[in-house]
Structure formats: structure tokens, C-alpha cells
Specification:
Elements lengths: L5 E3 H11 L4 E4 L6 H9 L3 E4 L3 H15 L4 E4 L1 H16 L5 E6 L15 H5 L5 E4 L6 H13 L6 E6 H5 L1 E3 L23 H13 L3 E5 L1 H5 L3 H11 L3 E3 L14 E4 L7 H8 L2 E5 L20 E6 L2 H6 L5 E4 L2 H14 L6 H27 L9 H10 L6 E3 L4 H15 L6 E3 L10 H11 L6
Parallel strand pairs: 2-3, 2-4, 4-5, 5-7, 6-7, 9-10, 9-12, 10-11, 12-13, 13-14, 15-16
Antiparallel strand pairs: 1-8
Helix pairs in contact: 1-2, 1-6, 3-4, 3-17, 10-13, 15-16
């Protein structure tokens, strides 16, 4: 008589995640999650036990941002409440973290079960996909859908809730595989390819522009297009700006990079946008950071063109004069190719003017800080921007800088631009996303050190 091997639902979950290429799990070990933890151990996946669920979430987020590969944050039902801030932080930066909650029993759902909380509903507005796994036979199906939603289109965190009775129940190790099979491994994210006529229309606008600028958002990072962004700006003489709180795309020392697209943290950006005749925003939404596409950030006299890799982003960018559905990397490569063919050749005097403005801004900012420190009224106290500069002065090329939230982030961003202009070459920067969440610093630093153990953080 043929015998079948039976394993717990948590082990099925672990196998499904391993088949997707997930390598790191961050958790606070506890009873509700033990079957999944046993499954991760059997699969020889790396499990990092943390002192608090919010820390586990931030560690998973930091790891995902650096590697651009989804990591897992696994928590119990009460721990889910602690992980919500980390979920919100990942959501703001579109980080495709896979949050998994070992939740209360499905059998008594809605009846006040042990540690019952409506985690699916709470996570829904903070994730791209939040769902309860209602059948152990379908665990592979739910994991497959969650993974694809997380990494495709406009990426973002997802949430799977696995009730404890399914977590601990035993199933055939091939549960769910008797049906029509599908590929259980990780597939490369689908990339939107630009429609030729619409792409050419955008390239024609760039060719006709005298004063174009490039604004990059986190969509460029998640598409792996930051090197193409730098090449496009440098080779075509188009100044580049980074959206505030979005993932850093270029080193501050890069020739084509000017600063943040924010008049408070980099005042010359306002002059660049006001003087421009074409603004190309790539990989981001016209949200609060971009004043919803309105003046004074984007003057009515300039043409605003948004290039995005998903319909979701395009729908948010209705205020743009022109939109193009395209993977950021695919568009930037087309832009570079157009430059090589000679069909696009902007006036480099515009590029040089923006570099001169950055030179003058750096000189003035450093002079102002030094002058303020010398005044009797300041009493010899250190300015927060000077502190941020001093931290970078003690760093070496290749070191990682981690910035926490609040005003520390504000002043550190300015200092990063100043130090980069003067030659500091950091290995990487991690900082809070659009919510400017406090408390991410230590977790992000551990993430950076975990991925780059040979670097100082």
C-alpha cells in the first residue's frame, strides 16, 4: 500500500516561499508560527530572530530594499499589531516585503477566538494584497499570487494571514499539486514595453526641448535602471534630480546629479524647474512629494511628462501633460540610444548652468553654517547640519550611511548633497520613505551590515 508523507501547513508555506527564491525570514519566534519556523529550518532558509516585531518588519524591509529581492516578516496575531508601522514604512517606499501573520483559528473566526484580530482588514490599505489563506490545499496558490503582486507593476508589500488551525494541521506534502500544474518558481517581473508611436512622441519632445530635466523616483530603483539614468543624464547633458524620501538612485558625487527635487532641501531645484521647458518624471506618482503636479513646484509654462511602469501609476499622474506606460529602464535605454543616433542633442549650456548653481549653493550653505557657528548668539552649539557633515567626514569611501526619520533626515539629506559634491563616495544610503518613520535607523543599519558584512555602516 502506497504511503504519503504528511507535513504541517506551516511547512507547506515555507516550501512555497523557498520555491519563490525567498532566502531570508525575519521574525520573533512564538507558538503560533512554530510550524512555519520548523519548515524554514528544514528548508535551510536563513531565519533571523528579533526582539520585537516592528524590528523584524524593518529588517525585512531594509533587506528587500538593498537586495531588490523580497524578504519575509513572520509574526503572530498580537505581533501583527507591532509590525503595522513597519508595514506602513515598506508601503511608502513600495518595498515588496512579504508579511505573514500566524493568525487566530479559522474555525472560530468572528467568534472571539484566541488572540483574534482582523489582521487582513488592517493590512489592506497598507499593502497591495492582503488575504487569509482559507485552505491548506491552496497555500501554493496564495503564495504564488502574493509574490507576483508584490514584485510586478508598481511593487509593494503584501500580507498573507495563515490561521493557526491550518498552520498546525497536516496535509499531503504535495497538497494542491494534483491539479493543473503551474510554475512554482519565481518568475522575472513583467516589464511594460513602450508603445512605439507614443515613445517616439516623447523622444520628439525631448529633442525639441532646450532646457529639459530628469526627476527619478523609486520606480527607477525597482526596475534596476539607476545606471541608465546616470548615463542618460551625463551623455545627453540633462540635469537629474531625486524625489525626496524615495530610494537614492545616484551617488551625490555623480556629475549629472544635482540634488533633491525639493526647494527646501535643495533650493536650486526650484530655479531648474521654473526655467525648464520639459520635465521628465520617471518612476513615481504625482503625490504630495510632487505637489500633485501643481505650481509652484511644476510651473504651468513647462511640459510635464510622466513615464511609469504600471497603469496604477499612470492613473495617479493624470495631471501630467504627457504620460507613457513604460518600464523606466526600457525608456532610459531608448533615450540613450536616441542620443547615440544623434536625434537628441540638448544644449549643454543648460546642463552647465545647473552644475554652476549647485556649486554656488554648496559654497553658500557651508559658509552660512560656519558663520552661524561663529556668532555669539549661537553659543558655540553645533548646527544639526554640521553634525551630519561631521559624521560623513569620519566615513570612508564605500561605507554605508543610515539615516533615521524626522528632522535628522531633513538635515542629513542636505549634508549628503554637500559632502557628495565635495567628493564623498558612499557605498549606499538607507533612509525612511515618504512617512519619515522614526525608529528605522538601527534595523536598517543591521540590514545593511547583514547584506554587506565587509562594509562599515
Amino acid at each position: 500500500m502506497k504511503t504519503t508523507t504528511r507535513i504541517r501547513g506551516g511547512a507547506l508555506l515555507a516550501r512555497a516561499l523557498q520555491e519563490k527564491g525567498v532566502e531570508h525570514v525575519f521574525t520573533l519566534a512564538g507558538g503560533f508560527c512554530n510550524p512555519a519556523l520548523e519548515g524554514f529550518m528544514e528548508a535551510q532558509m536563513k531565519v533571523i530572530n528579533c526582539p520585537h516585531e516592528q524590528i523584524a518588519g524593518h529588517l525585512a524591509d531594509g533587506h528587500t530594499r538593498i537586495t531588490r529581492k523580497p524578504a519575509v516578516c513572520l509574526v503572530g496575531p498580537e505581533g501583527f499589531a507591532n509590525a503595522v508601522p513597519a508595514m506602513m514604512e515598506a508601503w511608502g517606499e513600495r518595498s515588496p516585503v512579504i508579511f505573514v501573520t500566524g493568525s487566530s483559528t479559522l474555525k472560530r473566526q468572528g467568534a472571539g477566538g484566541f488572540k483574534e484580530i482582523d489582521d487582513v482588514a488592517i493590512a489592506e490599505p497598507l499593502t497591495k494584497y492582503s488575504v487569509s489563506i482559507t485552505d491548506g490545499e491552496r497555500i501554493n496558490e496564495f503564495v504564488d499570487r502574493a509574490y507576483k503582486i508584490a514584485v510586478n507593476g508598481y511593487p509593494g508589500a503584501v500580507h498573507l494571514s495563515l490561521p493557526v488551525d491550518i498552520m498546525f494541521s497536516s496535509f499531503d506534502e504535495n497538497a494542491g499539486r494534483q491539479e493543473r500544474p503551474f510554475d512554482l518558481t519565481a518568475q522575472a517581473p513583467a516589464r511594460a514595453w513602450p508603445e512605439p508611436a507614443r515613445l517616439q512622441a516623447v523622444l520628439d519632445r525631448i529633442a525639441a526641448a532646450k532646457r529639459p530635466v530628469l526627476i527619478g523616483g523609486h520606480g527607477v530603483w525597482w526596475s534596476g535602471g539607476e545606471a541608465l539614468l546616470e548615463e542618460a543624464g551625463r551623455s545627453l547633458g540633462i540635469p537629474i534630480f531625486n524625489i525626496p524620501y524615495h530610494q537614492k538612485l545616484l551617488g551625490e558625487e555623480c556629475e549629472a546629479y544635482m540634488g533633491l527635487a525639493d526647494a527646501h532641501q535643495y533650493h536650486p531645484s526650484a530655479d531648474a524647474f521654473n526655467d525648464s521647458d520639459l520635465i521628465l518624471m520617471i518612476g513615481a506618482r504625482l503625490d504630495n512629494q510632487m505637489n500633485f503636479g501643481n505650481a509652484p513646484l511644476f510651473p504651468a509654462t513647462t511640459t510635464l511628462c510622466c513615464i511609469n511602469g504600471s497603469h496604477e501609476e499612470i492613473d495617479f499622474n493624470r495631471a501630467a501633460d504627457v504620460t507613457l506606460l513604460s518600464d523606466p529602464g526600457a525608456f532610459l535605454q531608448a533615450l540613450i540610444d536616441a542620443g547615440k543616433s544623434g536625434s537628441i542633442a540638448p544644449d549643454r549650456s543648460w546642463y552647465d548652468l545647473n552644475r554652476q548653481r549647485r556649486d554656488a549653493w554648496v559654497t553658500k550653505m557651508i559658509a552660512d553654517v560656519e558663520a552661524e557657528a561663529a556668532t555669539p548668539e549661537f553659543g558655540g552649539r553645533i548646527h544639526p547640519m554640521q553634525l551630519a557633515l561631521d559624521v560623513q567626514q569620519a566615513m570612508s569611501d564605500g561605507d554605508w550611511l543610515v539615516i533615521d526619520g524626522g528632522n535628522t533626515h531633513f538635515w542629513s539629506e542636505i549634508a549628503v548633497n554637500l559632502a557628495g559634491h565635495n567628493g564623498r563616495k558612499l557605498g549606499g544610503i538607507l533612509h525612511p520613505g515618504t512617512f519619515s518613520m522614526l525608529g528605522v535607523g538601527v534595523s536598517f543599519a543591521v540590514s545593511a551590515k547583514n547584506v554587506h558584512p565587509d562594509k562599515n555602516v
